């Protein structure tokens, strides 16, 4: 697709619905052809990221619990910034969500906890 045809910016509800319908029919593969087949004027990469980080049915939406926080701190101490690996231990959470939560909320909290030990 040419750059002039590509849509950028926030996703609309209608686009989300079209992507969900396309994934239910075609499956989670070949995102470039899925984007074309669905009629979305988005790149395959954009469709994949939207699906993986926001639309998958098994994703947890909402606040991260204290138990999840403690697990993230523990696993980050063990594995460092391996967000995908950490996300595998937290079903329904994405690596991107965990990374962003770490950088905005937990980094300082983890430093305080370490100083207290």
- How much strand? under 5%
Helicity range: 55-70%
Specify Rg, calculated over alpha carbons: 18 Å
Structural class: mainly alpha
Morphology call: elongated
Q: What ranges have pLDDT less than 50 throughout 5 or more consecutive residues?
A: none
CATH superfamily of the largest domain: Homeodomain-like
Give me the count of strands.
0
Major sheet: size, sense and barrel closure?
A: none
Q: Using the coordinates above, name the CATH class of the largest domain.
A: Mainly Alpha
Average pLDDT, rounded to a whole number, is 90
Distance between the termini: 56 Å
**Secondary-structure element pattern, one letter each:** HHHHHH
Structurally, the number of domains stands at: 2
Instruction: Please name the CATH topology of the largest domain.
Output: Arc Repressor Mutant, subunit A
- Please name the CATH architecture of the largest domain: Orthogonal Bundle
Keywords: DNA-binding, Nucleus, Repeat, Transcription, Transcription regulation
GO molecular function: DNA-binding transcription factor activity; sequence-specific DNA binding
GO biological process, one term: response to absence of light
Subcellular location: Nucleus
């Amino acid at each position: 697709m040419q750059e002039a045809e590509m849509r950028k910016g926030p996703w609309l509800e209608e686009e989300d619905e079209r992507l969900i319908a396309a994934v239910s029919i075609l499956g989670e593969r070949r995102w470039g052809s899925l984007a074309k087949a669905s009629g979305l004027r988005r790149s395959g990469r954009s469709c994949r990221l939207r699906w993986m980080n926001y639309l998958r049915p098994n994703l947890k939406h909402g606040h991260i619990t204290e138990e999840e926080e403690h697990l993230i701190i523990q696993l980050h101490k063990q594995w460092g910034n391996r967000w995908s690996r950490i996300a595998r231990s937290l079903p329904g959470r994405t690596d991107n969500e965990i990374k962003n939560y770490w950088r905005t909320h937990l980094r300082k909290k983890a430093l305080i906890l370490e100083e207290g030990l």
